[in-house]
Specification:
Length: 256
Amino acid sequence: MSDIVRVSELNKYFGSLHVLKDVSFSVAPAEVICIIGPSGSGKSTLLRCINFLETPDFGSIEVDGIEVKAGVPESNRKQKIHKLRLQTGMVFQSFNLFPHMTALGNVIEGPVTVKKMAQKEAADIGMGLLEKVGLAEKRDEFPKRLSGGQQQRVAIARALAMQPKVMLFDEPTSALDPELIGEVLGVMQQLVEEGMTMLTVTHEMSFARKFAHRIMFMDEGRVVETGAPEKLFTNPEDERTRSFLGALARIGHRKD
């Protein structure tokens, strides 16, 4: 089966800072890739470039057959970027819910305003998604009345309401208290089991070990090493990967 995501020679600068350096990889349908690496390695910028929340300077991105090349005038690719974004759902570290909208209102806002879906149809889909993430009874609550874990589950439902082909998760549990992390990882596990294609930047190594098909280790804007979890975690080839995983293991022992 052909790849659903292709990233080719992607480069991104912030001023003189070269944040992404010739990043290339592909993702098969229903594949789950977890992206790991130290802070500042370009992980979040990579996700934001895939759906053009950040504009790459060089390279190309293709999602479900829609290819957008960097360097092409904005006016010539605006429609393509819009189509590409419709295929990608994004969940951020901070929940980014609209504070003046209920949980259901947040979920249906995209389908109604972007896809011009009828309010009732969107509400039916939205309620199904809130039920999916275990929050049907919170449909009329505003974000300030929800816990962090509940807000993030609403954010996942909101992204799913656009019926994306690919889900992008940018450290979705990093802003949560430890006891709430499991709520969000449980929803993500369900999506994995349902065959959703996922790219996840995460520090949750247990999730990555158990559910990723491939681990991508990034450092200083480059993909240093990619491999199956059992291979990369137990026998990494690159010294930088070994050093990073060793540091994580030491931190884990100190916490114990």
